[in-house]
Automatic annotation (TrEMBL):
The lineage of its organism: Eukaryota, Sar, Alveolata, Dinophyceae, Suessiales. SMART domains: WD40. The keyword Membrane does not apply. This is ZFWD3 protein. SUPFAM superfamilies: WD40 repeat-like. Transmembrane segments: none annotated. WD repeats lie at residues 105-134. It comes from the Eukaryota. It comes from Symbiodinium natans. The gene is ZFWD3. It holds the Pfam family WD40. Keywords: WD repeat.
Length: 369
């Protein structure tokens, strides 16, 4: 399914008689291990190994742990080494490695759909439409204040951006002030929000119908990709850095096992691949984007309109003006083929250029933060 000449290569496919006996709901990577939570009520811990012929495979690191209910969310708090598992019955099970101990957090009445830790406070969202805060006193977790009722319905995802808590639900996105814990407002949607990701000070939101939107911290929408082609669903989403280019990639999991990758910030489709036919993608782990991207190199079309972008490219640059402050244009073969490349710097936001030089052979753009 990867296609001839693809930059992707399948490293491993788990045998059907290995691992979970039902679907995998969530997964994460921490401390060199992979943790998976399933509908079969088991938590599996895996480690990567090399076989005798140099191939990659996953091996169980310990016997599976039965938690008594389907595992619907998972999060690892690295500083305190707590592994947190949200369950279908509303409980949260917390496991600490050093020292070894276990906690059970009761409060939600329906499945826990998402977990985050911010400023040493655990934030949990549930299918009952509530968000709860939990503080840790060094020995145990305690509920903090009253639960927050999500104006956008049952909670599907949550993320902190600046001083606001963004909560995705069945009817849109709601924002809460972290200082007052009061709702700031709601971005309504007819489609379920399936993911929220913070990237370079912006919030990326994916929707069940395949749409992707990008918002400023104020809640203003700066980009929207409508569902189109075969990308007509979003079931899971993750950010990662391309290992060769070090550019961020947005991975959108879909129904029927497909994943579509987009280069950011230009939101250019890189391609799609199929993980498992006739199975919805429920969880992805790409390692995240740990640093701000300050430079992007883009190819240009031939110079039929010297230094004037085609309408599609112009709109693309304009939609990303909030992400960058300058465009560098390198012209080759201008004004004569024998001359060195010419560098032109533009300040955003602005039209691509107001003057028309003669002609050039090729060009490239760099967007600078």
């Amino acid at each position: 399914m990867l296609g001839k000449g693809s930059e992707l290569r399948k490293l491993y496919y788990m045998p059907h008689n290995m691992g979970h006996s039902d679907g995998v709901n969530c997964m994460l990577m921490a401390d060199g291990k992979i943790y998976t939570g399933g509908r079969d009520e088991y938590l599996f811990v895996w480690r990567a190994e090399r076989t005798a012929n140099g191939e990659f495979e996953l091996m169980q690191d310990c016997p599976p742990i039965h938690l008594g209910a389907s595992i619907t969310a998972i999060f690892y708090e690295a500083s305190a080494k707590w592994l947190l598992c949200g369950l279908w019955n509303g409980d949260i099970r917390a496991f600490c490695k050093e020292p070894m101990r276990e906690e059970r957090l009761a409060g939600h009445r329906r499945s826990v759909t998402c977990l985050q830790v911010h400023s040493s406070v655990l934030i949990s969202g549930s299918n009952e439409g509530q968000v709860r805060l939990w503080t840790f006193n060094g020995q145990t977790f305690q509920g903090h204040g009253q639960p927050l009722t999500n104006p956008s319905g049952p909670v599907t995802c949550l993320r902190v951006l600046g001083e606001a808590l963004w909560v995705g639900g069945y009817e849109g996105i709601s924002c809460f002030d972290l200082g007052t814990l009061q709702a700031r407002g709601t971005i309504s949607s007819q489609h379920h929000v399936t993911g929220l990701l913070e990237c370079q000070g912006f919030m990326i939101a994916t929707f069940r119908n395949g749409e992707v939107s990008i918002y400023e911290a104020s809640g203003s929408q700066v980009f929207r990709r409508h569902a189109m082609g075969e990308h007509a669903s979003n079931t899971a989403v993750e950010l990662m850095l391309h290992p060769a280019t070090q550019k961020p990639l947005l991975l959108c999991g879909q129904v029927q096992g497909y994943v579509t990758a987009y280069d950011l910030p230009e939101f250019r489709p890189r391609g799609s691949f199929c993980c498992k036919d006739r199975s919805d993608v429920k969880a992805r782990w790409g390692g995240g984007v740990g640093k701000r991207l300050t430079q992007v190199t883009l190819p240009l079309r031939p110079p039929q309109n010297p230094l004037f972008l085609c309408p599609a490219c112009h709109a693309c640059f304009s939609s990303r003006a909030s992400f960058f402050s300058r465009i560098e244009v390198v012209l080759r073969g201008f004004p004569q083929p024998s001359l060195p490349p010419t560098l032109v710097t533009l300040t955003l936001p602005s039209p691509p250029l107001a003057r028309r030089p003669a002609s050039y052979e090729s060009a490239s753009y760099r967007l600078l933060g």
